[in-house]
Amino acid sequence: MTAPLTLDAAGRGILAELAGVDERTRLLTARLQALPETAEVERLEAADEERQRLARRARGDERGRSATLWRLTRDAANMRARRRRDIEGLRANPDTERRRDLRHDLAVAERRLAELTDEIAREQRTLEAFGASDGPGHEGPVEDPALVQARAEQQAVVRDLTGQITDLEHRSRELREALPPQILALYRDGERDHGVGAAPLLGSSCGACFIDLDAVTLRRFAAAPADEVLTCPECGVLLLRDTAR
């Protein structure tokens, strides 16, 4: 029969500290991966991207309005030239029928010029309003101050958590080196198979798999010497027990 593994008080303290350090590392790592600060940054980034998309579309609309204004201005210049030719023709041409045609064409030119003048004024007002809302100089989109602040807060939290995790990982390596090789091998097996290397015995259940242990096993555990290394019969994880008795 194989003799049970044993661990003295100092070794049990190292194992308990290691389990606590690694559990703290897992908790901080899980928090780092699901930071509310990160979720807030992502929300604000999405809102900022939508705002910039709308601004890009507005700038495209502005270019379209500028082209429209140029076209209207050109058409108005053509109508003024047409009106001027009609007036000159009326002054120079005594033919009654020709004068009637010129007066008709002049009326059409005058009406169209009035319409173009109104359209030009509307386009100019729209462009002025757009320029006022877009800010002086049209310098392009400015990042949302709330997003800048949220990113700074996220980075501060990430730095803090990363620093804590780095320190804990360093301490974990130190503690692992202090454990006997057989105990460390069992600890690593538990990490590989169940995510934890050692877990407390919680009354009648294992703190790793949370299965209630049978009465025979519990009596054996109760009678085991303080230095005997116990493992869960269900999952094989090292069990930490309160041996202060």
TrEMBL record:
It holds the Pfam family CT398_CC. Residues 205-239 form the C4-type zinc ribbon domain. Residues 18-188 form the CT398-like coiled coil hairpin domain. Signal peptide: none annotated. Residues 99-133 form a coiled coil. It comes from the Bacteria. InterPro entries: CT398_CC_hairpin, Zf-RING_7. Keywords: Coiled coil. This is Uncharacterized protein. It comes from Corynebacterium nuruki.
